[in-house]
Amino acid sequence: MLISARNINHQYNHGSGCLQVLQGVDLDIEEKDFLAIMGSSGSGKSTLLHILGCLLKPTSGTCFLRGRDILQLQEKELAQLRAETIAHVFQQFHLLPTMTVLENVLLPSLYNSIPPQQAEAEARRAIQQVGLEQRLRHKPNELSGGEMQRVAIARALAVKPDLILADEPTGNLDQDSSQEILTLFREINQQGCTLVMVTHDPEIAGQARSTRYLRNGNLQ
Amino acid sequence: MAIFNKPVSNKQGYKQGYQIRALLKTACLSLLQQKLRSLLSILGIVCGIMAVVAVIAIGEGAEQETMRHIKQMGITNIYIRADQLTEEQQQRAKQHHSAGLQNSDRERLRTNPFIRRTAGTRERTRNLTDLPQGLHPQLMECTASYGDILGIQMALGRFISETDTVRHHQVCVLGSQIAADMGRKGQLGQEIRIGEQLSLVVGILARQDGEDGQEELKTKQTKKTEITKVTKVTIQNLNNIIFFPLDTVAGKTEAITTTATTADPLTGQLPLTEILVEVKQADQVKPCAALLRRSLHKAHNGFDDFQLIIPLELLAQARKIQGIFNLVFAIIGAITLFVGGIGIMNIMLANISERIHEIGLRRAVGARPEHILIQFLGEAVLLTLIGGIIGILCGVLLASFLGRLTGWPIGFSLPVLLLPLAISVMTGLFFGIYPARKAAAMDPIQALGSPS
Ligand SMILES: Nc1ncnc2c1ncn2[C@@H]1O[C@H](COP(=O)(O)OP(=O)(O)OP(=O)(O)O)[C@@H](O)[C@H]1O
Ligand SMILES: [Mg+2]
């Protein structure tokens, strides 16, 4: 078992009141699983991914990663998980505008233990896998939405993590590109990387091993 | 697949260079992107460091100059100098039966166990009848020991000898400058005429370092006036002196620059201008000086027509004045740096608030709070370091300019340049730590949510 989350609740506090987004989510993710999560907009999918990725502490609940409670971990250990074990593909890409494609993809290697030269080789390979080898020196503002999305995917791949949390990784891609990314995901999943993917597209979700639906703050 | 077996504290020595290079690049880019803003923000540091450098350079120059003077005077020496007396004081001296500094005063010191040797000098003003126009050498009678105590080096021939003083030989020794100015007349074997008296040139001094050139500058010095004045009377410009053995220049009734103009009624000798005492060890200078003062006071029947000049004490005094000077400017520099540091802090806070998104992303891909701290602290230090380097350059220019304008000696040594560099780095650390800690303490997901 890679991840075992129990009774996860999360609420966002606004100035006026609070918004309960997750209400008792239970989720088990096996090693080498490929899970798709679907749900309507605002149902809390991104929130759930952030919690699974050690970026956000839920209001209550427990979340075990390979048997260890990630909610009890020190900042240092969390940072190491983020640097080496878990990679995010963010819904809003989150690329640094001042850096080139290559530098953006290399950013995590500043903080993980992959030797610099190997990191650069991995980064180039990942960029090639998403089909952007011609755009190494481009800045994000010179890229289309789909290209930025692919850079974000490459950044996650280059880390060679155990778990990739992809938030609508094909949201900005046409059908052919989406299919390419999905093929790539299945390939790395074959190689042993666990994948959790949020999507609105049932066809994309169908290519995962299993699909869960987030409704009313609950996974079904 | 053992996540937790991976070492938590990355002791990745090989990675540090990589990280530093990447962060340095980011820092430079971010500074370059806001060129004007960065430049303005380091202006305070530039001014502060410039002031510090100029002050240290000027202080260092003064210190070197003072040290040179005092070393030249001799750390173990005590100068007993006859006072210049007014008419009224001369009357009082007569009443006290004090005949000024006498060679007998000097001879009495021989028994003092602290003292290695003594010398006596008497400055004379007489016209040298057959000198070329415009030459005004100083005439000085002295004992043979004068040359030994001051460590005078000869270019040619010999200095005044013991026998010269005992036998009253009609000889003289020329300073290098006056010898050169006199041309053919200023050579060994020539004779110099004072009135009716002819003195054989038996030696020419080697040039004493750089006194001439500095002479004019010294009069311009406003700083450390006290010391300069004192040293100036004592340190003779040896290059422009003609030396004679003691008691060999005729004309006992002529005016002498110091003390009573008349001879001692008992011995018939003119008073000395100065008695130079060399103490055996530096730590004996102080007690010895006190002893000398007391015994002379007694010998002169309670009339103090002399003063003691003690280079060792001048040194302490000079250091004290220098210390006050340094303190004042250190405070000024500190205030400027403080204001400059606030500017840096301000700019770093602005910088960080513009880059919250970047901070969030770095945290999300694995940066620890320390990484963020180091990144922004590094940027602050980079700013102040650049400011410091510009400041040092400006300070060097300013100090040289001031030095040329005022004639102050300027000293640039390595510490003069390294200390301000260290100070600028410390300023960066001090004022950068608060913004950097603020950045490091941000919550990753909140930071990531802020607009990029
Ligand atoms: N930082 C926040 N502060 C307050 N409310 C938030 C915050 N982030 C998300 N929310 C709210 O929580 C709810 C769930 O947000 P979330 O981003 O998880 O939805 P989502 O399922 O990913 O939606 P989408 O499919 O549109 O991406 C939304 O209603 C949103 O308004
Ligand atoms: Mg979302």
UniProtKB/TrEMBL annotation, chain A:
Pfam families: ABC_tran. Residues 3-220 form the ABC transporter domain. Keywords: ATP-binding, Nucleotide-binding, Transport. SMART domains: AAA. GO terms for molecular function: ATP binding; ATP hydrolysis activity; transmembrane transporter activity. Coiled coil: none annotated. InterPro entries: AAA+_ATPase, ABC_transporter-like_ATP-bd, ABC_transporter-like_CS, ABC_transpr_LolD-like, MacB-like_ATP-bd, P-loop_NTPase. GO terms for cellular component: membrane protein complex; plasma membrane. Belongs to the ABC transporter superfamily. Macrolide exporter (TC 3.A.1.122) family. This is Putative ABC transport system ATP-binding protein. It comes from Candidatus Electrothrix aarhusensis.
UniProtKB/TrEMBL annotation, chain B:
Coiled coil: none annotated. It is found in: Cell membrane. It comes from the Bacteria. Pfam families: FtsX, MacB_PCD. Keywords: Cell membrane, Membrane, Transmembrane, Transmembrane helix. Residues 331-444 form the ABC3 transporter permease C-terminal domain. Residues 87-108 are annotated as: Disordered. The chain crosses the membrane at residues 39-59, 327-352, 373-402, 408-434. GO terms for cellular component: plasma membrane. One of its GO terms (molecular function) is transmembrane transporter activity. The keyword Transmembrane applies. It is a multi-pass membrane protein. Residues 38-287 form the MacB-like periplasmic core domain. Belongs to the ABC-4 integral membrane protein family. This is Putative ABC transport system permease protein.
